[in-house]
Amino acid sequence: MCGIIGYTGVKGAQEIMLDALEILEYRGYDSAGIAVCGEDSCVRIRKCAGRVKDLRLLCEKDGILGTCGIGHTRWATHGGVSDANAHPHRFGKVTVTHNGIVENYRDLVQRYRLEERLQSQTDSEVAAAVLDHFYSGDPLAAIRKTVLKLKGTFALSIMFEDIPGTIFAVRNVSPIVIARAQGGSMLASDVTVLGQYSKEYFVLPEFYVAVLKAGGVELYDMAGETAEPEWLTVNWDVDRSGKGGYPFYMEKEIMEQPQVIRETVLPRIQGGIPDLSGDGIPDSLLADCTRICVVACGTAMHAGLVGKALMQSLVRIHMDVELASEFMYTDVIVDEETLVIAISQSGETIDTLEAVKHAKKNGAKTLAIVNVRGASVARASDYVIYTNAGPEIAVASTKAYTTQLAVLYLLTGRMAYVRGSFGEEEAKAFARELMRVPEVMQKVLDRREEIHYIARSILNAQDVFMMGRGLDHAILLEGSLKLKEISYIHSEAYASGELKHGTIALITEDTPVVAVVTQDKVKSKEFSNIKEVQSRGAGVILFIKETFGLEKDAVWDSVFMLPAMEDGFMVMPASAALQLLAYYVSLDKGLDVDKPRNLAKVVTVE
Ligand code: F6R
């Protein structure tokens, strides 16, 4: 989850790293630090609890001149948020930054008698100490011996005091990407930051050691043999990673959705029919499976729930959606006939990655829906479909979610076609409606000030309930997560019919309810359920498909008319509306919308 940067070259390392850390802050923002090898070959560290802007102030007062350095922005796991626990950590001749968790750090502390010698409470400093223990002039040997001792996940960037100008990197699971840039070599925890500097990069393979020098990068396997990196091209427009004039990335990313959905969908419609052959997905993969199982976390899992509703109704195939974090521990049944779909924006969520590996071990075919090219989940899966969302910087996912949905629509359409649930005309009609999504979603975005006005009515609420049935419930689970994570208002999304089985006890005049009504087949039942909460005093904010119309005698706190699509596609305009609702509540509460407390964009710990 932490952000890692490293640079060695001809330019000042401090400035390059501070700029990069600002971009990387979305991976964690508890504390930040840099270590720079100075002109006198001494490694000096500046670090502090707080944001990168605090580190920048520290460096402005007391900077370090030098052209080689490593930097870090932290999401605390072991040890609280403090200056001492901030990275980099130095032990003896070794300075490291670390992303991941060293699970056996307690054993290592005992084994190498480190108890009295550590300055921090972190597992990362223990890794530095073990490296130092094994270091006697041969860095590759020390790294090799150390990684054999470490249990858990790690991405380590390492400087040895007596090897100035050189950075070493090694990893297990947690990612490191490497590029030639800025008159030297760079490494980072993700491509979003390196993409600013270079069009080409490679993903450090697990248990290989990269040696970065000003003149280039060398790669070694654990036996010390040289290896060739597999270079990849940055697949997104770097210009898209600025805020583009919006106050927060989240607003910009919400507004980008019509464009990125278009870019995700259009290349995958051939002859008017959804077609995934360009992604290397054989029709047999979709035709031959007897079951589908989605593994994902958070927002990506919510995308899976929408996919399930679509697949079951249009393809009539059994589909489960499993929390990736539970997948390995709940004896889920997957076999050779199961298609496991892993959904992940970052492609680095460790639970999702482990679930994919587990599914493969059980013989399942695996298909990843991922945004970041070359990410671990994509590489671990048999097949991959990339969403073309471009870099998503705000911690709360928006455009990644709706492009995941777009891919799930494409998969549903293709699957229905190859399995015979759709004839050619039905497949074409489905694709036509999917291609309308960008223009319909744009209509919601153009009316965002209406939603801003509605948001003011829940600004001071302690709890907000959300209710809907079927697809409306799936949409609201995501809408509720968005509201919770960026506004800190407690919220729950309920299947409307379920509320009266207990939770309705919590409904009072102080609990506003958000209701979404977009599905004709359950609309009258949804209205009855809404009346149940209104009778208990709750004010209701209604998002309704515009063609449904409103009952004459009904009273609403607010109503937003959603532009109409076929019911199965109403998820798209409704999602945009709920994203805006959460965004404006957070904005008007004066919160840091892009970096909500306790969260990080990439979750690489289990
Ligand atoms: C919420 C959010 C998270 C992620 C989850 C999975 O806005 O973004 O719930 O969806 O952490 O992340 P990825 O998609 O990177 O696997």
Q: What's this entry about, in short?
A:
35% of the residues lie in helices and 24% in strands.
Structural features, described:
- The chain is an alpha/beta fold and 606 residues long.
- 35% of the residues lie in helices and 24% in strands.
- The protein is built from 19 helices and 26 strands.
- An 8-stranded antiparallel beta sheet has the order 3-2-4-1-10-9-11-14. A 6-stranded antiparallel beta sheet has the order 5-6-7-8-12-13.
- α10 packs parallel to α14 and α16 crosses α19.
- The radius of gyration is 25 Å and the shape is globular.
- The chain starts with a strand and ends in an 18-residue tail after the last helix.
- The mean pLDDT is 94.
- Fructose -6-phosphate binds next to α10 and α17.
| Overall radius of gyration | 25 Å
Average pLDDT value?
Answer: 94
Oligomer category: single chain
Estimated helix fraction: 25-40%
Taking the alpha carbons of the first and last residues, their distance comes to 11 Å
Question: Structural class, judged by helices and strands?
Answer: alpha/beta
Poorly predicted spans? none
Number of helical regions: 19
Shape: globular
Count all strands and give the number.
Answer: 26
Major sheet: size, sense and barrel closure? 8 strands, antiparallel
Strand order of the largest sheet: 3-2-4-1-10-9-11-14
Percent of residues in beta strands: 15-25%
What binds here, in terms of ligands, is: fructose -6-phosphate
